[in-house]
Each structure stands twice: as structure tokens, then as C-alpha cells.
Write a structure and sequence with these properties.
The complex is a heterodimer of chains A (193) and B (448). Chain A has 193 residues and is an alpha+beta fold. Chain A has a domain of 127 residues: OmpA-like domain (60s Ribosomal Protein L30, Chain: A). Chain A is elongated. Chain A has 6 helices and 4 strands, in the order αααβαβαβαβ. Chain B folds into 2 domains: 166 residues, TolB, N-terminal domain (Rossmann fold, 3-Layer(aba) Sandwich); 268 residues, Neuraminidase, CATH 2.120.10. In chain B, strands 1, 2, 3, 4, 5, 6 and 7 form a 7-stranded mixed sheet that branches. In chain B, strands 10-9-8-31 form a 4-stranded antiparallel sheet, with no helix packed on it. In chain B, strands 11-12-13-14 form a 4-stranded antiparallel sheet, with no helix packed on it. In chain B, strand 15 and strand 16 form a beta hairpin. The radius of gyration of chain B is 24 Å and the shape is globular. The relative contact order of chain B is 0.11. The chains are: A alpha+beta (193), B mainly beta (448). The interface between A and B is large, with 39 and 49 residues.
Chain lengths: 193, 448
């Protein structure tokens, strides 16, 4: 069975228990694995939705009609986890990230009409210009992985914020681990489909 | 700003020639001189008297000018301006021989006396003499005419003249700094380009904060600033013309453009483009806008900086597995690694003198600012901290400005970010006052 088919099955299973609104995207995706750095007592793990998400043009399902394909895709991406995390100064995808992306790919294959922006981010432990390049590398790693699973490259746009937009504010390893990330944002449907 | 430009043409520098040659015919004592090639210099005690005016207004300006001169010299770390209030009243006129004996008890090595007057055409005239107190010799005597509004620039020009006469190096006080002003919470930081004199005066914002802007750099003419601006979420390289306030995008098309840097002749702009997970260095010929690729490597190649002769580029690459500094020919040929210490090296900046490259080094979780020779030898660390980054050179290649950012504490406080300047020999570090948090400084050349 191809990986995406397995992922699809997972989504169906998840949809069945979607009433559990308190589950974070990562917990849903990883079957309850611990978030990076959570042991440090940082608490308050945030969901994968970016704070103030308007900055990237990735304001979500255009129009927000609630019933649109983009909205559905966005909700399902959020459910499987829109964010994957990276080790310090690395851009390779570990097993947990791959599991999340397998499920993202399944959603995107079910909604071929929607496009995504993949944002790469870094922690504050690097220099600004290098971090912009590293963030692009991370976002591109996600794009290539999703493309290998069949998502058309033309549907995915890669950008980098370097360390300009941390998910978690803090100068400690728990915060840094969550800021080294790539986020998949649904940006709306393909015209006419 | 057009006012500032107009000033440049109006500032007339007139050296005193006649009159005082006789006074200068003192014994041939060893010349007063600070040797700034040595480390940990004891600052030279210097007496700077308020410049005397002929009216209440020119007296006030004269006092302000002397204060700016004092502050410039003091912040260089090479001078210790003395409290002159007790002796202010006894000073002789500008054209008379000072009472040197008055100044010896406080060990003043040098003495600055000045005069401010209004010319019939409304312009301000500022004159000063720099004396060697122990040799009883005049070291410098200069006069300037300029619009009254430009009194601060005259003060910086005088401070530069004193610095040059006493150190043998060009000054750097008549310069400006462009940087990124920061406000708001760390995850929704508002960033604006801002420009100011090197001492923080004449501060002005250049962008409105509606998009993220980063890493500005002056063109050699100071007429333009290259910088990064996010457009629809994508980093692009722009050039801002300061006079017209117009922006022009240099890096369009696929991929994101960032890390711009002018060549010393202003004809070329080097920058990075990231595309398909790979970042390489490109150069734009600013006359033809032709863009040429300089590196073709699977690694991240970023932060280019031209040598002052324009023949080489130092840059940052992780092609060896970790971030290191490399020098290549300006056409991209002959790349060679120059940094070999522990940790990661980044943000190289080639000194305008050509003799050193400043950099950021990250080792064991700490950031440092350092300098090395272009062949990688003679590495020295100038400043360290939680995050210090982005060195930029004063035009004389003796002082470096960078930013220092504090960690965010558990309570969410902290995270302060400020600009500092440090001289590369004495390592005297001084904060540059800014209205808000600040990062990504770039120093201008001496104003024309």
C-alpha cells in the first residue's frame, strides 16, 4: 500500500474523532508523541496556526466561506499537522516530520484544486542572512517531499522568514525547537475548478 | 535631505595660513600623537573650550559645537575631554597665544579654542585652533562657513580634523548610519528602515513598517540604500534613492533575493538568490542591470562583501559542512576558505582600508564580533554576547558598529536590541542611542 493511501486512512480515522478540539495538530499527527522541547516545562504548546497569520499573504481559505474546498483542505491540514520541526542548523526531515507530511500530501491529493505556501522558519541562534537561506532550504525540503508523493510542484510556493517570525517567544531550547519549522498554508483554490 | 546636500557645497574649508606662523615656531618637541596601533590606549586628556560667539545666539551655538566635538572624541575611546568650567572665563581670544601654564596642572595634552560668528550673508563662520599644551605649538587651525542649520555637521568635521591631526588616521564623525528600527512583540516585530548621524542625531524613518525590511547598506555615494524588503511574503532586494525616496526592485523573478552589498565604486551590487533549496551569490551591473551568477554550489552562499579595490568578494558558505568565510575573485573564480577556527563564521564585512575582514562568529552558543586579515590570519574577538551580529565599518577602518540583542527571559521580558560601536584596538564599546530597538546597522562613508 502506498504511503499516501495509508495516510488517507489515517485522515478518515482522525475525522471520526474530530470533536476532540483540544488536541494540538502535532498530537493528532504523531499519535501523541511529545513535542520537541516540551519536557522543559515550557507548557502552553500552541497549535500550528501562525500568530497574526496575515503577514505572509497566507490568510487561509480565501473568502472564508466555511464550506469551500480551500477551507476544508485547510481544516484537514490543520488536523494532520501543518507544521514540521527541524534539528538545529538542519533541514532534513525526521520520521515524525515525514509522517506529518505523508498526511499533508494525502489531503492535498484529495483537494487538487488548492495551492499552498510553505514557509520556512529558523530559531534565533543563527545570523539573519544565513537564516533566510536556511528557512528556504527547510521549506524546499518539505516541497520536495510532498512532490515526491505526487503533489504537483506548481501548486506549492516556498518562502522563508528566517528568524523573523518565531512561533514561540523565548530564548531557550524549548522555544527554539518549535521555531525551527516549516508550515504548510492553504492559500485558496485554483480558478475555475 | 536636500538641505543636507546643499550644505555640502556650501561648507568652505579655509585653512589659516598667515598670522600664526610665528607662534608655531616653537622648539622642535616630539609631536603630540596618539599611536592607535597599540591596544588598551590610555585616553588622551584634552581641553575643549566652548567656542566663543559675538552674540547670545552665536555663543549658544559655539557651546553646542564644543559639546558635540567633545562627545565625538570621547566616544572614540581615544580621548578624555576634561572639565574646563573653572578655566573657561580666563581663556584668551582665538588669535592670541593661550596661557599654557593654566592647562598643565590638569595634564591637558591638547587644547581646543574656537570662535563662532555670523557672516553678513547670514551664514555661520566657525573657526578653531588645536594646541599642543606642552610643546606650546599650534597643531591645526581651520575655519568653516556654512548654513547655521548645519552646525552639527561642522562640529563633526572639526572633530574629524582633531582626530586626524592627533592620530594620523582619517576621522569618521561626519558620517551617518542606516539601520533597522524595531518595535512590537518578537513574533510580530515591526521593522522600519531608519537613518541618523553616527551619534544618533537627526534621526529619520525611511519606511512605514507595513512590511519587514532588513539589512540596509549605503551606496558609496550615500545617495542610495540597498536593502531587503518582503513583497507578498517574498524577500526582494531594493535600492532606495534617498533624494527622490523612490524604490527600485533589483532582484525579481523566481526565488528570493537578499543580503545586498555595493562595490566600492558603486557600479555593482552583489546579493544572494535562494531558489529550489539552494542559495547562491549573484552580482548586478547597476548601469545595465545585467545579473550574473557568481557561485554555483549546492551549499548556502550568502552575505557577499566586496574588497575596497573591487577585485575580490568575501562571503559566507556552508559548503564544508558548517558556515565558514571564503574569498573569491569578483568574477566568482578561485574560491578559498579563510576561516578555520572552531564554530561557525558569518556576515563578513571587508574593511574600507582593505586590511581586515570583520565577521560574526558563533561558538558554543555564544556570538562574537571579530576581525581577521583577508588571508584568515590574526583573528581577534572584539565583543561577545548572547547575540551580537552584523559588523559594519567606519570609513577609516578603525571602528566597527554592530548590534547586540539580549535574550528573552522566561517572563517574556528582555529581548532588547541596540547598536554599539567598538574600536578595533582599544575595544572601547559604546552604545549608540536610538529611539527604539535597533539592529542591522550599516555605516556610511565620510560625507562628501
Amino acid at each position: 500500500m502506498p504511503r499516501w493511501a495509508f495516510a488517507l486512512a489515517m485522515i478518515v480515522a482522525l475525522a471520526a474523532c474530530a470533536s476532540d478540539e483540544t488536541a494540538t495538530s502535532e498530537q493528532a499527527a504523531g499519535g501523541g508523541t511529545t513535542l520537541p522541547g516540551a519536557a522543559a516545562g515550557s507548557g502552553g504548546i500552541q497549535s500550528g496556526t501562525l500568530p497574526g497569520g496575515g503577514y505572509g499573504g497566507g490568510s487561509g481559505a480565501g473568502g472564508g466561506t466555511g464550506g469551500g474546498l480551500a477551507t476544508q483542505a485547510e481544516q484537514q491540514i490543520a488536523r494532520v499537522g501543518d507544521t514540521v520541526f527541524f534539528a538545529f542548523d538542519r533541514y532534513d526531515l525526521d520520521e515524525r516530520a515525514q509522517r506529518t507530511l505523508d498526511q499533508q500530501a494525502a489531503v492535498l491529493l484529495r483537494f487538487p484544486q488548492v495551492n499552498v505556501i510553505i514557509e520556512g522558519h529558523c530559531d534565533e541562534r543563527g545570523t539573519r542572512e544565513y537564516n533566510l537561506a536556511l528557512g528556504e532550504r527547510r521549506a524546499n525540503a518539505v516541497k520536495e517531499y510532498l512532490a515526491a508523493l505526487g503533489v504537483a510542484a506548481g501548486r506549492m510556493r516556498v518562502i522563508s522568514y528566517g528568524d523573523e517570525r518565531p512561533l514561540v517567544v523565548g530564548s531557550n531550547e524549548a522555544a527554539w525547537a518549535q521555531n525551527r519549522r516549516a508550515v504548510t498554508l492553504v492559500v485558496g483554490g485554483v480558478a475555475g475548478s | 535631505m536636500s538641505d543636507r546636500l546643499a550644505i555640502l557645497r556650501r561648507v568652505a574649508v579655509i585653512a589659516f595660513v598667515g598670522g600664526l606662523l610665528a607662534l608655531a615656531a616653537a622648539p622642535s618637541a616630539a609631536e603630540l600623537r596618539i599611536d592607535i596601533t597599540r591596544g588598551n590606549i590610555e585616553p588622551m586628556p584634552i581641553a575643549i573650550l566652548p567656542f566663543v560667539g559675538d552674540t547670545a545666539e552665536t555663543s549658544r551655538v559655539g557651546r553646542d559645537i564644543a559639546q558635540v566635538v567633545s562627545q565625538d572624541l570621547e566616544r572614540s575611546g581615544l580621548f578624555r575631554p576634561l572639565d574646563v568650567r573653572a578655566l573657561e572665563a580666563n581663556q584668551p581670544p582665538l588669535d592670541a597665544l593661550p596661557q599654557f601654564a593654566d592647562w598643565r596642572p590638569m595634564n591637558a595634552q591638547a587644547l581646543v579654542i574656537g570662535r563662532t560668528t555670523r557672516l553678513p550673508d547670514g551664514r555661520l563662520r566657525v573657526e578653531f585652533r588645536l594646541w599642543d599644551v606642552f610643546a606650546e605649538q599650534q597643531l591645526e587651525g581651520l575655519g568653516y562657513n556654512a548654513a547655521p542649520a548645519s552646525w552639527r555637521r561642522i562640529a563633526h568635521v572639526i572633530a574629524d580634523a582633531i582626530y586626524k591631526r592627533l592620530t594620523g588616521e582619517e576621522g569618521y564623525f561626519d558620517t551617518r548610519i542606516v539601520y533597522v528600527a524595531e518595535a512590537g512583540p518578537p513574533n510580530r516585530r515591526i521593522k522600519r528602515l531608519a537613518i541618523m548621524d553616527q551619534d544618533g542625531a537627526n534621526h529619520e524613518y525611511l519606511t512605514d513598517g507595513s512590511t519587514i525590511v532588513l539589512t540596509p547598506r549605503f551606496s558609496p555615494s550615500m545617495q542610495q540604500i540597498a536593502y531587503l524588503r518582503f513583497v507578498d511574503g517574498v524577500p526582494r532586494v531594493f535600492i532606495r534613492d534617498l533624494a527622490s525616496r523612490r524604490d527600485e526592485m533589483v532582484s525579481g523573478g523566481d526565488g528570493m533575493g537578499f543580503a545586498p552589498s555595493f562595490s566600492a565604486d558603486g557600479q555593482r551590487l552583489a546579493f544572494s538568490i535562494a531558489r529550489d533549496g539552494n542559495t547562491d551569490i549573484y552580482v548586478s551591473d547597476l548601469r545595465t542591470r545585467a545579473i550574473r551568477r557568481l557561485t554555483s554550489n549546492a551549499a548556502i552562499d550568502v552575505s557577499p562583501s566586496f574588497s575596497p579595490d573591487g577585485r575580490q568578494i568575501v562571503f559566507n558558505s556552508d559548503r564544508s559542512g558548517s558556515q565558514q568565510l571564503y574569498v573569491m575573485d569578483a568574477d566568482g573564480q578561485n574560491p578559498r576558505r579563510i576561516s578555520f577556527g572552531e564554530g561557525r563564521y558569518a556576515t563578513p564585512a571587508w574593511s574600507p582600508r582593505g586590511d581586515l575582514i570583520a565577521f560574526t562568529r558563533i561558538q558554543g552558543g555564544r556570538f562574537s564580533i571579530g576581525v581577521m586579515r583577508p588571508d584568515g590570519s590574526g583573528e581577534r574577538i572584539l565583543a561577545s554576547g548572547f547575540r551580537v551580529e552584523g559588523p559594519t565599518w567606519a570609513p577609516n577602518g578603525r571602528v566597527v558598529t554592530f548590534f547586540r540583542k539580549d535574550p528573552v527571559e522566561g517572563s517574556g521580558t528582555g529581548g532588547r536590541s541596540r547598536l554599539y560601536m567598538v574600536d578595533i584596538v582599544g575595544r572601547q564599546e559604546r552604545e549608540i542611542s536610538t529611539p527604539q530597538d535597533a539592529s542591522d546597522p550599516a555605516w556610511s562613508p565620510l560625507q562628501p
